[in-house]
Design a protein that fits this description.
This protein is α/β, with parallel strands linked by helices. It has helices spanning about 20-30, 50-60, 85-90, 95-105, 125-130, 165-175, 190-200, 230-245, 260-270, 305-315, 335-340, 370-380, 395, 400-410, and strands at about 5, 15, 40, 65, 70-75, 80-85, 105-110, 135-140, 145, 155, 180-185, 205, 210-215, 225, 250, 270-275, 280-285, 295, 320-325, 345-350, 350-355, 365, 385-390, 410-415. The strands form six sheets. Strands 22-23-1-24 form a four-stranded mixed β-sheet. A four-stranded mixed β-sheet has the order 2-15-17-16. The structure holds uridine-diphosphate-N-acetylglucosamine.
Length: about 425
């Protein structure tokens, strides 16, 4: 199993091209199988989650292949409506296929999804929303059986603005006659990207990016080509890499408007940030100042996916920072590993108090999940001595060639 070996202490300088967003391409792949025509999606990163999603789509009978950063999906033949258990448990995003397979086949059998071990991650909001649209659902032996023969458009009020449930319901309702309105929908930028993609295929959806999304059913979706949006979480991680190493990085292709919550906090740590429509420029400005409080919230609040990377920065900031994790109940698994590197952190339930130290030191640490793993790499870039980050397969789920990108801006990091 691969590990990263990092000799910390090098300031990072240069440009990083931001690849397409994992959290957008996975629902786009699911959306693509609703059409019987060929769909091409570009700017797709080569990630474990992407490879697994392609395998699942192939198991359903569609043709799907990745060449360079382009994925071509041809679902003219989609003979199965069963998502295979062994693949679904690797990938939580397989749950989106529930909505799209239902749209296409009117029935679906899906295993309970997997993904990062960051909390319970139930799918009750997805199920309740589908039931509100008159989909018949039975749950038995770890599988969910759905029958959408009598599915109807209507109003769905989400109990919580779940990103996945919002996307799944958009996919399920896109071919359903009449108008479906999702209230208390999630507002994440990836939902806007899904709306734009579906509309390019001929769907009639409006309101994504607000808490009310309207889906007016159309007869069918046509083929299209589409460029996936840049990954705001990857961009945020490399922005923090500049800050934690006292460096200066240009994030090429990153969208400032999608990253306001992080950038405003980085500005408070005393980083100098400038941007134009194509790039964001982050320049560290001496030792970071601690930001007093970081509370994760649904978009446009501070993203839970950047909580761990931002915590790595706060471990070496001047002062005290209090983190509250509101989205997932088990998302402080990086804390034990950061303390092995000299971080001063106390956890109480969903709150972590970090007292910044001058600098971390190298240690052997274990990535426990995707973003927590990225936080350990960031910590290793700061630390004196050698850090070994084990189990980097977690990181490979969401960051393409992380070590190669970091080396290109001056980091001393290898995979072995
Ligand atoms: C997506 C992102 C993930 C991000 C998260 C929150 C993808 C592929 N993943 O995950 O990177 O961290 O949004 O921004 O886009 N919940 C329920 N019942 C449900 C659904 C969710 O209780 O039916 C809870 C979850 O357990 C969690 C919270 O709601 O505590 C947020 O989950 P959700 O917004 O659905 O996140 P995901 O779509 O899984």
């Amino acid at each position: 199993m691969s590990e990263f070996l990092i000799n910390g202490g090098k300031s990072l300088y240069g440009e990083v091209e931001i690849h397409g967003a994992k959290n957008t391409v996975l629902p786009l792949f699911a959306a693509a199988i609703i059409s019987a025509e060929k769909v091409e999606i570009t700017n797709v990163p080569l990630l474990t989650d992407v490879k697994n999603m392609i395998k699942i789509i192939q198991k359903l009978g569609a043709k799907a292949e990745m060449v360079g950063d382009k994925v071509t999906i041809d679902a003219s033949r989609l003979y199965s409506c069963e998502i295979p258990n062994e693949l679904a448990k690797e990938l939580r995003s397989s749950v989106f296929l529930l909505g799209s397979v239902l749209s296409r086949k009117k029935c679906a059998k899906v295993a309970y999804p997997g993904g990062c071990d960051i909390g319970l991650r139930p799918i009750d909001i997805h199920i309740k929303g589908l039931r509100d649209l008159n989909v018949k659902i039975e749950e038995s032996c770890g599988y969910i059986y759905c029958d959408a023969t009598d599915m109807q458009s209507g109003d769905v009020i989400l109990d919580y603005p779940s990103v996945g449930a919002t996307e799944n319901l958009m996919l399920a309702a896109v071919l359903t006659e009449g108008t479906t309105v999702l209230h208390n929908a999630a507002c994440e930028p990836e939902i806007v990207d899904l709306q734009n993609f579906l509309n390019k295929m001929g769907a009639k959806i409006s309101g994504a990016g607000t808490s009310t999304v309207r889906i007016t059913g159309v007869e069918s979706l046509k083929g299209t080509t589409y460029r996936a949006m840049p990954d705001r979480i990857v961009a945020g991680t490399y922005a923090i890499a500049a800050a934690i190493t006292g460096g200066e990085i240009i994030l090429k292709g990153a969208k400032h408007g999608d990253m306001r919550a992080l950038l405003s906090k980085l500005a408070k740590t005393s980083c100098i940030i400038t941007q134009n429509s194509d790039n964001i420029h982050i320049k560290a400005n001496g030792r970071p100042t601690a930001v007093q409080r970081i509370t994760t919230q649904p978009h446009p609040g501070f993203p839970t996916d950047l909580q761990a990377p931002m915590m790595a920065l706060q471990t070496v900031s001047d002062g005290i920072c209090v983190f509250t994790e509101n989205i997932f109940e088990n998302r402080f698994r990086h804390v034990t590993e950061l303390t092995k590197m000299g971080a001063d952190i106390i956890i109480n339930g969903r709150t972590a108090v970090i007292k910044g130290v001058e600098r971390l030191h190298g240690a052997e640490v274990y990535a426990q999940d995707l973003r927590g793993g990225a936080a350990l790499v960031l910590a290793g870039l700061n630390a004196y001595g050698t850090t070994v980050v084990k189990d980097v397969y977690h990181i490979d789920r969401g960051y393409e060639n992380m070590e190669i990108i970091l080396r290109s801006v001056g980091a001393d990091i290898i995979r072995r």
